[in-house]
């Protein structure tokens, strides 16, 4: 059995039991990276030297019993929109091709405090705008299960890296499904916590009211443990909240009597039949374990996508205006005067999907259109939240697919952005309503591609979705990704 | 017949709040400092940084709102105002559009004895921008973000003013009120108070507003008065010539006494305001309001009434003393210590104001302590020093805040009222000036002044004038 077969929790235990050294763990990850990353392109930046150096410090502190956390010593990958002090942080954009933050995100400080080791920065859709990791300035990331397929996105690099054992666990970010959908495509487990659970300080904003950092792991236990590490009340983030319990403690809770709502709207037109069957089968298994399952109408599902794209693009158009060539990042080499510098820098520095969303966002905020688009989208968001509140008054969790299909072929969706946007149908409403959601693999389709099931819970009820996900994981006996050599 | 025109003026006043730290981060707001030394990732707009609201900013805004009779918006929010300019590191300013913290207020002004209310449309909180410095030598522009994120409130008046006098009365009223609250020092020259003038003209009797312009870059009350006069004339001229006033922003050049068009409404930017998602809404509950209200200091109007009643000070004097809270505080402290309100008032209105003007200072910069002024008043009352010496000692108090008792002692400035010494000196003066004595005897009572002067000169100013007069009278009568 190879070191890379271990989960993050298993690895940390072995390190603390002195069966494995931190350095060995780091080297095991780099063995995978060196073997596969040229092909997969999960990382924008790898930090072998730094990681090895840090592994020695961490080893000492573990030996001295100073680091005793569940994930001490575990190598981790960090999505490239999360700031790491003095380490290139690009958001997979040309415009930040030379940007070295002067500070680390609170989530990164938290993993460092735990004694985890950052291996590198993972590839993503540029500024997290996309569902395929094809819009990166630094090349596409390929799905380890089938390299002709996309890994999903925008946290495609993080999810593919976990699937390919190029790290033991990873941080992603989720604005409209960017952790859950690629987790589903890559056969790994990924959670978007309740809005406010993980500090956004140091997460380079896409849609501020929707963004949330979350864990990606090989199984539910790893994800819960990593969620505990990164979640903290942070004075530097006004939208940060205090957490009332440890997520990890809730994963083995019994699901007997758990009320599961199945939104009919999520199983209608557009959903791939194999995905539908896999999700329904896992629900049946949960019922056998004592859960109470009921179908219901969620309503407003069709409005989630337009509301999401209006709000996210509006916020993005403002959030991304700071990338102007004045203070940091890329500046067009030739220009005449200030306005020309702005224009050229932004024209050359941003990719087409980013430009599309900046234009869309600027349009919906323009005077004369604000009420018709932005304000209406905000009202829709409030209504969607209401419909979830109603649902969660009856059910503990809501189960559905994480994505309408399994991993798409590379190049398939870029030509048709609307089609790509519609692929987010099951994930965006959790962001609009601030809800926690998790994607856990349940099986493979005929093509051998992973299928993920999504479990949504009420705000701050990560315990419900984690224990449900844990149960599904036990039942599914999910296969391993072959490329990972596991 | 020549048409008569009425000027309609509304003001947008920006006031820099006196918080120790910036509005959304903990950087110092201190003026000066080497460029970009009072900065952090938040106020330089680094990717991933987030704003966190400084509670004191809200408290000051509420205090100003309450003192100007505004309704406080108990559920209020920040919005983003989007525009590209390098002094604005995020390329958006965090401000308030939809739910400003204060609305529907007014202040009372008095011009030439008649009173009137000027409405306040709203007061909102926002952040200041950085400063661009053009380096002519290198031919490049540099940015200093030390001011970026300094808290401001913008007070938007209704178009209720009709002339420069009213505008200045309104500004003075705002300034005193805000200074009393301690919310800002409101210095126009230093930019901690800035006023933009919105002005239009219309024929007297018309109930429709004319097209207005907005005038910027007004750094003193005098400049404001000149700009109003200039813009009124410019607009009337246009109308008389049958031309149209263009809605635009103009920049006043006080040296040339002329304004230049900066940008017209046509190329006005669309700021694409929307609610700031990085900040949670502020809920100002009634307890919070009550606390701010309770902490509100006595304002000028209340002081004026109390001074007339409690200290029996004439209103004109009280007006001068209460013009700034600094002066009023010195007055009250000193009076408490020496027990003589009138003498205290005289020192402040007379010598203090004279020295302030002479040194081209601001009253806010007065630094002497009430203890030392009170001591001075006491030793003068006791006759230990005479008025001439007292003025000299006061100058030292004003400049260096010296202890007058020690100072008088050290410099040997105590009045001489020892009869023996005085008699000797006066006798000598009388003997040396027979002409003056003769004049006096012949009814030229003025001559005594000369003899007193000579005595004081001989005594190096330290003689007690009362004693000199008395002894001189006795000697002259005896001649």
Explain what this protein looks like in three dimensions:
The complex is a heterodimer of chains A (486) and B (479). By secondary structure, chain A is α/β, with parallel strands linked by helices. Chain A has one domain: Alpha-Beta Complex (Amidase signature (AS) enzymes). Chain A is built from 15 helices and eleven strands. An eleven-stranded mixed β-sheet of chain A has the order 1-3-2-4-6-5-10-11-9-7-8, sandwiched between helices. In chain A, helix 4 links the parallel strand 2 (75-79) and strand 3 (117-122). In chain A, helix 2 (22-40) runs antiparallel to helix 3, helix 9 crosses helix 11 and helix 9 packs across helix 12 (371-394). The radius of gyration of chain A is 21 Å and the shape is globular. The model of chain A has no long low-confidence stretch (mean pLDDT 95). With 479 residues, chain B is an alpha+beta fold. Chain B has three domains: 5-288, no CATH class; 298-411, no CATH class; 419-478, Arc Repressor Mutant, subunit A (Orthogonal Bundle), CATH 1.10.10.410. Chain B has 15 helices and 16 strands. In chain B, the strands form four sheets. In chain B, strands 2-6-7-10-1-11-12-13-14 form a nine-stranded mixed β-sheet. A three-stranded antiparallel β-sheet of chain B has the order 5-4-15, with no helix packed on it. A two-stranded antiparallel sheet of chain B has the order 3-16. In chain B, helix 7 (325-338) crosses helix 9 (370-381) and helix 14 packs across helix 15. Chain B is elongated and about 95 Å long. Chain B starts with a strand and ends with a helix. At the A-B interface, helix 9 of A face loops of B. Chain A: GO terms for molecular function: ATP binding; glutaminyl-tRNA synthase (glutamine-hydrolyzing) activity; transferase activity. Chain A: One of its GO terms (biological process) is translation. Chain A: It is an enzyme of class 6 (ligase). Chain A: Heterotrimer of A, B and C subunits. Chain A: It holds the Pfam family Amidase.
């Amino acid at each position: 059995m190879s070191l890379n077969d271990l989960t993050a929790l298993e690895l940390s235990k072995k390190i603390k039991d002195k069966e494995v050294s931190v350095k060995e763990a780091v080297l095991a990850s780099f063995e995978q990276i060196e073997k596969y990353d040229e092909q997969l392109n999960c990382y924008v930046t790898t930090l072998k030297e730094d990681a090895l150096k840090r592994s020695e410090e961490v080893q000492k502190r573990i030996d001295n019993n100073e680091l005793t956390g569940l994930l001490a010593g575990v190598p981790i990958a960090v999505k490239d929109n999360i700031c790491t002090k003095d380490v290139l942080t690009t958001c997979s954009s040309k415009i930040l091709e030379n940007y070295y933050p002067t500070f680390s995100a609170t989530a990164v400080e938290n993993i460092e405090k735990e004694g985890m080791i950052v291996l590198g920065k993972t590839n993503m859709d540029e500024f997290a705008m996309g569902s395929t990791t094809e819009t990166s300035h630094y090349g596409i990331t390929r799905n380890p299960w089938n390299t002709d397929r996309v890994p999903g996105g925008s946290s495609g690099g993080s999810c593919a890296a976990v699937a390919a054992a190029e790290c033991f666990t990873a941080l992603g970010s989720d604005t409209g499904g960017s952790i859950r959908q690629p987790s589903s495509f890559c056969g790994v487990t990924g959670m978007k916590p309740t809005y406010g659970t993980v500090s956004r300080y140091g997460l380079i904003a896409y849609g501020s009211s929707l963004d949330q950092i979350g864990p990606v792991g090989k199984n539910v236990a790893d994800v819960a443990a990593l969620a505990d590490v990164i979640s903290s009340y942070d004075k530097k983030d006004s939208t940060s909240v205090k957490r009332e319990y440890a997520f990890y403690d809730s994963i083995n809770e019994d699901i007997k009597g758990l009320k599961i709502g199945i939104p009919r709207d999520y199983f209608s037109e557009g959903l791939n039949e194999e995905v539908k069957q896999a999700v329904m089968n896992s629900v049946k298994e949960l019922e056998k374990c004592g859960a109470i399952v009921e179908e219901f109408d969620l309503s407003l599902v069709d409005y989630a996508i337009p509301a999401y794209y209006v709000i996210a693009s509006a916020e993005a158009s403002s959030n991304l205006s700071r990338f102007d060539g004045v203070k940091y990042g890329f500046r067009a080499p030739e220009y005449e005067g200030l306005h020309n510098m702005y224009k050229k820098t932004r024209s050359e520095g941003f990719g087409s999907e980013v430009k599309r969303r900046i234009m869309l966002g600027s349009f919906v905020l323009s005077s004369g259109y604000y009420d018709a688009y932005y304000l209406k989208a905000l009202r829709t968001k409030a209504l969607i939240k209401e419909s979830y509140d109603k649902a969660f008054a009856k059910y503990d969790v809501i189960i559905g697919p994480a994505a309408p299909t399994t991993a798409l072929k590379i190049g398939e969706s870029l030509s048709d952005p609307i089609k790509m946007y519609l692929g987010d149908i099951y994930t965006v409403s959790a962001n609009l309503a601030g809800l926690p959601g998790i994607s856990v693999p349940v099986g493979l389709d005929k093509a051998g591609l992973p299928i993920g099931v999504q479990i949504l819970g009420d705000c701050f009820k990560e315990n419900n979705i984690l224990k449900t996900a844990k149960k599904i994981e036990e039942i599914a006996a999910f296969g391993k990704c072959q490329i990972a050599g596991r | 017949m020549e048409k008569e025109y009425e000027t309609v003026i509304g003001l947008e006043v920006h006031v820099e709040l006196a918080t120790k730290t910036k509005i959304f981060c903990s950087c110092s707001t201190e003026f000066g400092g080497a460029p970009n030394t009072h900065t952090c990732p938040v106020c330089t707009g680094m990717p991933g940084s987030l704003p966190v609201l400084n509670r004191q900013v809200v408290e000051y805004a509420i205090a100003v709102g309450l003192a100007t009779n505004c309704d406080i918006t108990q559920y209020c929010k920040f919005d983003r105002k989007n525009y590209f300019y390098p002094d604005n590191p995020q390329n958006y300013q965090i401000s308030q559009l939809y739910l400003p913290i204060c609305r529907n207020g007014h202040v009372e002004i008095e011009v030439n004895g008649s009173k009137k209310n000027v409405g306040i449309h709203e007061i909102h909180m926002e952040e200041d921008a950085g400063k661009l410095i053009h380096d002519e030598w290198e031919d490049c522009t540099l940015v200093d973000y030390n001011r970026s994120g300094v808290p401001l409130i913008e007070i938007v008046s209704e178009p209720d003013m009709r002339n420069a006098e009213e505008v200045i009365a309104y500004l003075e009223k705002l300034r005193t009120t805000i200074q009393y609250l301690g919310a800002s020092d409101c210095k126009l020259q230093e930019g901690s108070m800035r006023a933009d003038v919105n002005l239009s003209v219309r024929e007297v009797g018309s109930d429709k507003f004319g097209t207005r312009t907005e005038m910027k870059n007004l750094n003193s009350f005098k400049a404001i008065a000149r700009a109003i006069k200039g813009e009124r004339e410019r607009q009337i001229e246009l109308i008389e010539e049958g031309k149209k006033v263009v809605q635009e922003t103009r920049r006043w050049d006080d040296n040339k006494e002329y304004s230049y068009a900066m940008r017209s409404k046509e190329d006005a930017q669309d700021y694409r305001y929307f609610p700031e998602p990085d900040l949670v809404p502020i809920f100002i509950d009634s307890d919070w309001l009550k606390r701010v209200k309770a902490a509100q200091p006595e304002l000028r109007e209340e002081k004026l009434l109390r001074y007339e009643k409690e200290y029996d000070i004439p209103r004109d004097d009280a007006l001068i003393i209460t013009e700034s809270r600094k002066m009023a505080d010195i007055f009250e402290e000193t009076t408490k210590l020496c027990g003589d309100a009138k003498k205290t008032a005289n020192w402040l209105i007379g010598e203090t104001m004279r020295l302030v003007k002479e040194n081209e200072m601001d009253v806010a910069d007065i630094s002497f302590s009430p203890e030392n002024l009170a001591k001075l008043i006491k030793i003068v009352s006791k006759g230990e020093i005479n008025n001439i010496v007292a003025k000299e000692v006061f100058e030292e108090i004003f400049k260096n805040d010296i202890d007058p008792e020690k100072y008088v002692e050290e410099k040997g400035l105590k009045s001489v009222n020892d009869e023996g010494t005085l008699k000797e000196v006066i006798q000598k003066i009388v003997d040396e000036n027979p002409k003056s004595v003769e004049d006096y005897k012949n009814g030229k009572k003025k001559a005594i002044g000369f003899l007193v002067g000579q005595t004081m000169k001989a005594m190096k100013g330290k003689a007690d004038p009362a004693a000199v007069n008395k002894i001189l009278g006795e000697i002259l009568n005896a001649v």
